[in-house]
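Why show two proteins at once? Because comparison is the fastest way to build intuition. When a single record is shown, students tend to memorize it. When two are placed side by side, the eye starts asking what differs. So, the first record is below.
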Amino acid sequence: MDDNMQELDPSPIEESPVVNEKDSYFPLHSPSSPPPPAHPSSLGLSGHSLTWWLLRTQRYSSYAFTAFLTAHITNVSLIPLLTRSLPASDTYLLLTRPYYQSPLAEPLLVIAPLAVHILSGVTLRLYRRRQTALRYGAESRADRRTLAWPKLSGTSALGYVLTPLVLGHAFVNRVLPLWVEGGSSSVGLQYVAHGFAKDPWVASVGYTVLVAAGSWHVVWGWGKWLGWTPEEVGWEVEERERGKRRRWWVMNGVAAVVAGLWMAGGLGVVGRGGEMGGWLGRQYDGLYRRIPILGRRY
């Protein structure tokens, strides 16, 4: 070899390889194990990557929305299940609703957490798709089409199913009264019961899918935050499968109980409240007729 030449050891192009993370709302490491070391990012935010920030944004936004959801389910399902009376349940609803529909509480507990939760999930999926394209050098659209999208977890898939249902529910019960009447003071459980009576098929199917998707999404999401899902089992190999099966049954059992209680009050009591008559019924009909596409059924 020429004396002027020096032999160098081969070195990788990147100092640290890109980790192929599973596409879910949650980091790959379990709470019982130390987190992987943070890699520097172009964001300059404490040395954490964009994925790290999106995951934590999605997690903490769910805390505030869960507080609202607990109060909401109590008002529209659990209290009707106990009282078996729509007028009596509406009294509790009208007393407590101002606390989470005030000009300050509603943006902080409902609108902002929900928007942040959805946007961070979509952004995370698009960002991981972009990282995959960069990893494989897919520069053109044709190249990117050959790459598979990151795999969806069950919780993530339920989130995408739930998003249009939640937005539609909010439009009918909150946005529409504000738009037409300037407020929702006259909208309560009797308004919901009137909608069930006028179009029971659409209302029942939509409500059932909303409750089922919401219950499993929330329960499994919180199970992941708390380290209770089957993937978090860290026992010996021979006990791991048994532990995973046990946790799977527990998580689905809790979700089924939540959905059952929610459905029992919402569909079993409110959904069977019947059509309102007189001036109130005509007022409700006028609101429901403003719903795009489905409004013609009223």
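Second record. Ask yourself what differs from the first in the token line.
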Amino acid sequence: MGYFLYSVTFIVLVLGTALYFTRSRWLPLIPTPGYIYSRLPTSFSGDIEAGFTSTDFDLNANIADGDSRAGLDQKGKREVQRIMKSKHVGFDEARRIYTEQRFAKNNIGPDGRPKDPKFVSFS
């Protein structure tokens, strides 16, 4: 049993060393998805360039007015970008999906009304 354990350990060590020293040859052959990491913009002009704008959600007015804020929410942008890439949808559709997911997480229906049975509305 000891001979077998030492043999397996030696073979794994030799193969690992060989793979490490030849990684420049085989590493480019491994397919990697292109959306693992992409830097998010930090200004409204960067948000426009990244595609976080549409006719319904126009950021050009913010730039024209000289808005000094840092841009859109980083967490929201990251999630919207993930939805855009994974579901292959545009900005408006990804924003709608993101909003509905946040509504569902906070126990709010898709129509915007709370799902709480104790909720009373006077309209």
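One difference worth noting in the second protein: The first helix runs from residue 2 to 21.
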